Amino acid sequence: MINIAIDGPSGAGKSTVSRAVAKMLGYIYIDTGAMYRTLAYKALKLGIDISSETDRVDAMLSDTVLDIRHAEDGQHMFADGEDVTAFIRTPAVSMGASAISAIPAVRSWLLEMQRSFARENNCIMDGRDIGTVVLPDAGVKIFLTASSEARAKRRFDELKEKGEDVTFEAVLSDMIKRDEDDTNRACAPLAAAEDAVIVDSGDITFEQTVDKIIEIINNKVGR
Ligand code: DC
Questions:
Q1: If you average pLDDT over residues 126-131, what whole number do you get?
Q2: Which of 33, 107, 127, 132 is the most buried (most CB within 10 A)?
Q3: Quick count: other Cβ atoms within 10 Å of Cβ 152?
Q4: What's the pLDDT score for residue 203?
């Protein structure tokens, strides 16, 4: 199987770019951030204070069935049979996902599921630790990044388009806080693998980013 790891900070365009590249190559796209988001959504719904009630998060895991299904309109996330895809992109769930992803038991709970997708499919998997921890033998590793301002601007535009009541300043400060938390956590922090190719999406268009990544993949796996 050919596995492509795409890591990077929030808002660098990983998911839209990965989805487009996967479609062009006929690979499946796995958005691992959505897995953390789904667990955070469930924890918040149960009233769990994720940062302080790690034991309640642990207990929740043993009582959770997480499922990913691929449909025409992309990846759908299910928690205990409920399609939660529409609810996992809010600012509260984003912060909750960052907090829940720092819990080692959560990361190991998801690890085998993530690896089994990669064993069974040619796939593009995006996240924070795919090239470093989840798929250290991935054939291609890309670290997609951009300045925090460029990423916050993109996320702000997306949230506004969805009708969310947010300010640019709040989105930027959330982004900086999440970057810090994701980079500084002890377990599987956000990091570029030593053999990753760094791509900066800040000054180039979406199409140029996709073209650049396709070129990197073609050079590496000789399509
Ligand atoms: O990519 P995203 O914004 O949907 O990810 C949500 C959170 O999940 C993010 O704060 C970091 C965390 N995450 C992670 O720790 N490891 C991954 N492989 C993917 C996401």
A1: 96
A2: 127
A3: 22
A4: 85
CA of 34 to the centre of ligand 1 (A): 7
Q: Domain map of the chain by residue range?
A: 3-218
Q: Is 38 in the pocket of ligand 1 (CB under 6 A)?
A: no
Query: 197-222 pLDDT, tens per residue?
Result: 999 999 899 999 999 999 999 998 87
pLDDT at 158 over 90: no
For the domain bounded by 3-218, which CATH number is listed? 3.40.50.300
Residue-level pLDDT at 91: 86
Please, are residues 137 and 2 in contact by the beta-carbon 8 Å criterion?
no
Nearest CA to ligand 1 atom 16: 128
Structural tokens at position 46: 């149960």
Residue nearest to atom 11 of ligand 1 (CA): 98
82 backbone dihedrals φ, ψ, rounded to 5°: -95, 130
Return the residue whose CA atom lies nearest to atom 4 of ligand 1. 33
